[in-house]
Amino acid sequence: MKKIADSIIIGIILLGLCSCTSVKSTDPINSNQVISQADSQAPKIIKIGASSSTVTVLKLLAQAYQSQNKTVKIEFISNSQSEGAIAALKNDIIDIAGSSHQLKPEEDNGKVQYRELAKDLLLVATNNNIKGVTNLSTKQLKAIYKGDITNWRELGGANADIVVLDRPEDESAKKLLRKYYLGEEKTTTKAVILSKEGELIETLQSTPNSIGTFSLASSLINQLPVNHLSLNGVVPKAENFASGQYQMVRQIGIIWEKAPSAPTQGFIDFIFSKEGKKLLQNNGFAPAK
């Protein structure tokens, strides 16, 4: 009986040891497998900082890229001027900066690079309540911004005061408006100055009798209910820019680190691919050559 009891006790001990060994050997492996699977399934995040004039094109490209790459998530940091986006890039806060100007010598720390993405045509538009005004000459546009023409009736429209919506002098839209049409004439003190392009677009849509300048592509992509004005008889469209008739365009580019992460490089490759260029063309931009 003693031998039988001893055999039973030894069997129980061996069974316990086998069970413990099994738990110890398999649990860590299963845990590692779970962690590995979680890492592989976690979205790769790309952070973008864009000026108000470049955010539209970058969001357009980001949406198209994410629809094809479900493991990538593109986040946009709050919009600022190009200088702010570039500073954020150099401080490793973002992965890509959108800029409406080329990289300046004082902005280049030797670790980042710039490439032009597209030409963005600028549009002079009015609130959709304006009737009878479809074209403005340089002289007329200059007089509106200067404050010499203050009523739409003077231009063939209704008897209503003109509301000028403007951008700060250091913004690309205002610089180009001056370069091609306004010259150095002072802007009327009655103009409403809006710091971001998105604010100007919203205000133009909600303010009767208003006029302002912003991206043609933004208007086309969002199907904005505003009136597009011809300037000196030339319609603002990509074909007229290509032929040299329409010149008020701004340069849009991106800046990124010379040694980007694999997800960031993947998105950059898409931006400059044939598919990316076609997407730009279909939405009113003139892709960079």
Briefly characterize the structure.
This protein has helices at residues 2-41, 55-68, 82-90, 138-146, 172-182, 197-206, 216-221, 238-242, 262-271, 274-282; strands at 44-50, 72-76, 96-99, 112-127, 135-136, 163-166, 192-193, 210-215, 226-228, 230-231, 249-257, 286-287. It starts with a helix and ends with a strand. The chain is built from ten helices and twelve strands.
Features:
elongated; single chain; disordered N terminus; 12 strands; 21% strand; alpha/beta
Account of the 3D structure:
With 289 residues, the protein is of the alpha/beta class. Helices cover 43% and strands 21% of the residues. The protein contains ten helices and twelve strands. The chain has helices at 2-41, 55-68, 82-90, 138-146, 172-182, 197-206, 216-221, 238-242, 262-271, 274-282; strands at residues 44-50, 72-76, 96-99, 112-127, 135-136, 163-166, 192-193, 210-215, 226-228, 230-231, 249-257, 286-287. The strands form two sheets. Strands 1, 2, 3, 4, 6, 7, 8, 9, 11 and 12 form a ten-stranded mixed β-sheet that branches. Helix 2 (55-68) links the parallel strand 1 and strand 2. The longest helix has 40 residues, at 2-41. It starts with a helix and ends with a strand.
For the largest beta-sheet, the strand count, sense and barrel status come to: 10 strands, mixed
Distance between the termini: 95 Å
Count of DSSP strands: 12
Poorly predicted spans: 1-29, 34-38
Draw up the topology in text.
Layout: H1 2-41, E1 44-50, H2 55-68, E2 72-76, H3 82-90, E3 96-99, E4 112-127, E5 135-136, H4 138-146, E6 163-166, H5 172-182, E7 192-193, H6 197-206, E8 210-215, H7 216-221, E9 226-228, E10 230-231, H8 238-242, E11 249-257, H9 262-271, H10 274-282, E12 286-287
Parallel strand pairs: 1-2, 1-3, 5-10, 6-7, 6-8
Antiparallel strand pairs: 3-11, 4-8, 4-9, 4-11, 4-12
